[in-house]
Amino acid sequence: MSATTLVTLPDQATARIPKMNFITKENGLLSWLLTGDHKRIATLYLISITFFFFIGGALAGLIRLELLTPQSDLMASDTYNKVFTMHGIVMIFLFLVPSVPATLGNFFIPMMIGAKDLALPKINLLSWYLYVVGGILVLYTMISGGVDTGWTFTTPLSTHYVNTNVMSTGLAIFIAGFSSIFTGLNFIVTIHKMRCPGMTWFRLPLFVWANYAASILMVLGTPVLAIAIVLVALERTIGIGVFDPTRGGDPLLFQHLFWFYSHPAVYIMILPGMGVISETISTFSRKRVFGYTAVAFSSVAIAVFGFFVWAHHMFIMGISNYSALVFSLLTMLVAVPSAIKIFNWTFTLYKGSITFETPMLYSFGFMGLFTIGGLTGVFLGASGTDIHLTETYFIVAHFHFVMVGGMLMAFLAGVHFWWPKMTGRMYPEKISQLAALITFIGFNFTFFPQFILGTLGMPRRYAAYPPEFQILNVFSTAGATILGVGYLLPVLYLVWSLKYGEIAGDNPWQATGLEWQTQSPPLTENFTTTPVMDHEAYDYEWLESQQAKEVASVG
Amino acid sequence: MSDSRAVIDAVTAEAHEHPAYQRHHFETITQQFDATNFAMWLFLLTEVMFFGGLFTAYLIMRNWYYPAFVEASHQLNIGWGTANTGILILSSFTMAMGVWNAQKQRKRGLVGCLILTFILGLAFLGVKTIEYSEKYEKHHIPGFHYSMSSFLDPASDPDVHSSYPEDKPLALDMARHTELYFFLYFAMTGMHALHMIIGIAILGYLIVRAQAGDFTTGHFTYIENFGLYWHFVDIIWIFLFPLLYLISRH
């Protein structure tokens, strides 16, 4: 640890935020609500998903409070069912799915490929409005009594037995789904057609590759969820019977349609996060990502394999032994490209000049926690083990390690990493390093005990549990409190930094991406002239020679 | 596509600067055209996946309850179905001619073709209404006073029985699955009809703008992309017709 930091800031006495940038270009609420600028839409998204993240987080807090004691005492079991359902729906559809793509992807993909905007700015804005409508419908559902099917809408529970707001929730997810489809569609078109001269596919930053892979999943998967929801709605209203065994239908058909989207959806949630990690690991170890091509293709491989593993959610639902066998094998195949990523990031670190800024701390958190989450996924992919562990807290711990320990860490890594570019100001380094540490400790306290609870046999989705499980649940709830502090801190100091942060300059991290070679915050057009990409991605020597040239020309 | 390129190149070469309809964030008009066109194809891909769910459900159930699906399909009028197939293919032709006219910058030809497409679209929906009302009269709307008598006792339904004398009475357990067939029939053709209605509404808007001369200045992206949508809806029907109407004819 010879170099403690690589941050180079301009002289604070003379530095100013550029007068003309995408924030100051136009004023007034309408200029934001009717904007076509991808950076402004990304900002709108960032605000709205943060809002929903804290709603989902508050619901998680209620769940953990209820589970502090073995009896269901804080709320009735019915209420508990609604709380965990709403927690799942808010977190998955309103936070995780749009988290990195719609905010950081929206903001930086056009800049990374040297374009002025996404290919379809109006569709981009439409996607945000659809998201907001979906979000408002979810809030309406919550206020008017909630829904208690679990986020999976399992039939026949959702179609025949519950009297809660299945319809408005279904409509909300249908609409929010279209928002996700339009984001994915826009990204694919943009990455294909809007790259600047010299920007070949294998010069793209890996963040772009990862978002491209996730976009394929959004475009191909989400419509299937849409039709599954339409069929549930029809079954509920007019009783059409495709999912109803008494009329010759098949509830398993719903499971197939639902998981055909919802399994790829977990890769929609994790892939963009992996893209963030590729950027931060390279920048903070001053090395080109090891095995660039392998990492790029591993994103696509995850997207492709992701479509052929959905039935591993159904091992105990009565699918045939043969399909359980095949889907079990295919599921384990996904571990290969995931491992390629982890190993290549590790090799990138090897002999790199590593520094430990906040984004890097979050990235280390991601690598450790995602590895645990991913490996426990292999346990669950093995159909024999799955029969013992499914529907227990082991599942809960597994997907929270991937989604919260993985994706949320990556999201925070990305927000810190690009914060200087988005706002022109640095976040306060010391307190944010502390927040990253608190998050990591809180996370492990919260979710590691749940692995043990799961193997001991504590089922998920119950408000009450046998008293012998209490000690581990107390650990988990205590950890959740720490985790809550860890998530609250960034909101406070990031907002603080909007006014009081140090001026960041164009490229505080000395990063190589095109987005760092322009002013911060960027102009509405991103670049003054169309950039020409004349070097490979992550070429730190090119960056040094550029800076040497600049010094020479100034001198 | 070579025609359209020629038009684009001619326009850009002539003006030596960006034509008014080029959006600011595109470098060239060709890039804009390629991007929007590609986006439309991707959108149609999502539509394929959307209908894919219904087709999957249909194929599974048809495999399970084949006799019920065959006899239920005999309730559909192949004459009307064929007529509608013809109408849609014809409308796709007029739409394609519309795109060609837009590329050649012929305003009258474009408006004429769009109006013809509009009328053919309405004609399709008209025929569909007749077919739906037949189902209503015979109590074949699933979940709504559904009657199985035509299948438990084919002789009680002389119109259909005269054309399909080989139809045997179905056991109750199989006959009740005809309701699933009719549900899938209504869901699939209904979803298709919904796409037709949306298409016709957009077509109305395009006719007004074409009349104002908006698409005959070299900027025909809207017409071209709408044409893709219209052909897509047509193709969905091309799959629906044999699957729903012609089950027993092979």
Helical residue percent of chain A? Answer: 55-70%
Q: What's the β-strand tally of chain B?
A: 0
As a percent range, the share of helical residues of chain B equals over 70%
CATH class of chain A: Mainly Alpha
Q: Topology as H/E string of chain B?
A: HHHHHHHHHH
Shape of chain A, please?
A: globular
Q: Per the principal axes of the C-alpha atoms, what is the gross shape of chain B? A: elongated
CATH topology of chain A: Cytochrome C Oxidase, Chain A
Question: CATH homologous superfamily of chain A, by name?
Answer: Cytochrome c oxidase-like, subunit I domain
Q: How far from one another are the termini of chain A?
A: 33 Å
Low-confidence stretches of chain A: none
Q: Largest interface, per-chain counts? A: A-B, 41 and 38 residues
The main sheet of chain A comes to:
none
Please indicate the percent range of residues of chain B in DSSP E strands (runs of 2 or more). Answer: under 5%
Give the percentage of residues in beta strands of chain A.
Answer: under 5%
Question: What is the mean predicted local confidence, pLDDT of chain B?
Answer: 88
Termini of chain B, distance in Å? 38 Å
CATH topology of chain B: Four Helix Bundle (Hemerythrin (Met), subunit A)
Q: Number of DSSP strands of chain A?
A: 0
Radius of gyration of chain B: 23 Å
Give a verbal description of the structure.
- The complex is a heterodimer of chains A (555) and B (250).
- Chain A is 67% helix and 0% strand.
- Chain A is an all-alpha fold.
- In chain A, helix 13 packs antiparallel against helix 14 (429-456).
- Chain A has one domain: Up-down Bundle (Cytochrome C Oxidase, Chain A), CATH 1.20.210.10.
- Chain A has 16 helices and no strands.
- The radius of gyration of chain A is 23 Å and the shape is globular.
- Chain B is mainly α and 250 residues long.
- Chain B has a single domain (2-15, 28-245), classed as Four Helix Bundle (Hemerythrin (Met), subunit A) (Up-down Bundle), CATH 1.20.120.
- Chain B contains 10 helices and no strands.
- In chain B, helix 5 packs antiparallel against helix 9 (178-211).
- Chain B starts with a helix and ends in a 5-residue tail after the last helix.
- Residues 1-16 of chain B have low confidence and may be disordered.
- The chains are: A mainly alpha (555), B mainly alpha (250).
